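request received
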Amino acid sequence: MSVKYVPVQWNPNKYLYDAVMLTGVGLFLYVFLYAAPGLLSHERPINQQIHNARAFGACAFVMLTVILCIGPLARLDTRFLPLLYNRRHFGVMTVFVALTHAGYVVDWYFAFSRWNKFEAVLFANTSYGQLAGFPFEAFGIFALFTLILLAVTSHDFWLKFLGPPLWKALHYMIYPAYLSLVAHVSLGILLDQQNHVFTAIFAGCAGTVGGLHLLAALKERRIDRTRSGGKGGWVHVCDVSEMRDGFAKVKLLASGERVAVYLNDGALSAISNACAHQNGPLGEGRIIDCLVTCPWHGFQYDVTNGRSPAPFTEKVPTYNLRLDGTSVLVHARPNAPGTYVEPVPLPGTAPETEAMA
Amino acid sequence: MSDPRKHGFFVGYLPIPPALRGFLLVICVLLISGLAGFGLALGTAQDDPGQGAFRFDYGRQTVTGVVELTPYPLLRVTIGNERIPEGHTLMLAGGGKTNVENRAIPLEGQLAQVSGVMLQRGDLDMLQLRGGADGISAAEGVAPPMGTVPLGRWQLAGEICDGKCLSGAMRPGRGLAHKACANLCLLGGVPPVFVSTQPVDGSEFLLITGPEGDHLPETAYDYVAQYVSLEGEVERRGDLLVLRMDPNTLRVLD
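response:
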């Protein structure tokens, strides 16, 4: 959360995150570049520039694979949520690694001719009508420019400037970029490679990304079935006995919106389940210091009015609630973001403040 | 109010909950060791690029011979040296992805001295000439007649490559991942070479030209680096075979 934009709001966890990431990436590159050649029994070494291009290209692919696994892993097991917290740094680092790969490729394969090397990338191979020999560089270019676009717009300034729906839609382009990268590798080095270890690792990476997303989607669908139901004005959420203090129950409305109904100090309040930051699932968060805290990036909201505490300005819609016996009912129509709604005390309890008074 | 730390609820700007520390430590170790492991596995999974190389270790090579154009410039060596014997036919190329046709055309059929660095891959070699007249210049004497032996029409299977990368300018210097680079070399006039799966008259490497002894036809570029079959007239020029391909017979093989 911020009231002004700074490049990075550093904190100890971000330092730790980046240190682990950079150590892993550094080790990948060091081992590929300096340890692996000694283990290869080649009569003559691979050109250093080609070796470098492969090291950085392979590293970027593995990094992007890891990045894309974090989301579904966090959906399947919330203990992975800390990996999501600083994923932007992982993505930006991936762009630098991918750019280095592209630099080595352009400066080697497309240099030394009488043509401009960047133009040569575009015209050297134009066999677009065939699979084998297809200009796989085009897929790499698309993936690279998409990654650059996503890295440049990853900062919260762009999130605010573009608005969460557009920003989110833009950043879903990570999937076409990854598919493009898979095509880049599949139609490039994979068609030449004789060593099956490379093929197995590549297929394993792509399969893991696909498999985890499928598992996460199935889990979401299963949960949504239990959350959905109810049309019209007042919709049943759950029985009061199911509510836990500081936690929420999420209800999927017929409109497709999700509502997070929180129990806070013995009273119920309902806000939108979508965080104003990146649409994180507020209903899977917790109440900390009387504020709903998003599990993705820690954005906080007053559960009674959906507003972030001053000086922050984020707002989410609130919902009206009522009890019908022990049944918790929410009205399907959202209130304007930031609208105060009087909490509904559970039978037999009183809010702490009243009790103290 | 529940204590979020007790439930292992992570908030980025707060200390890591004790309940999560062990799990995250394991993830950190797995991530770091996993990335290092992937680096090792992928780094050691690279195929052997072959023995082709620039032979800088031979030093600068200077030989004399008769210049021929196919239209790619060749030198039929008449005065050789320790590395390049008399009777050998050398393909000639310029620096990078360039040719030496402009310098060779005025010397066609004449004796010339060439100088440069060799590229060598088994029986295949090429000479990358120095710049200007240091690379190729007219030599004293009368050029002896050089015979060409027609070997008839052949149907061959193999790969169209650029001769320079294949000879060792790049390692690896062939294959589909190298196709754009090969095309750029061929567009630059670097001599193209057909690598035949079966030897033709003892050689698996043939200089490949257009059907009328012209440059590689445009249609052939789509087939570069692929496993193809083609037909054409083969002729022997010294110890080098020249294939004048028929572009209508080009077929991709599975």
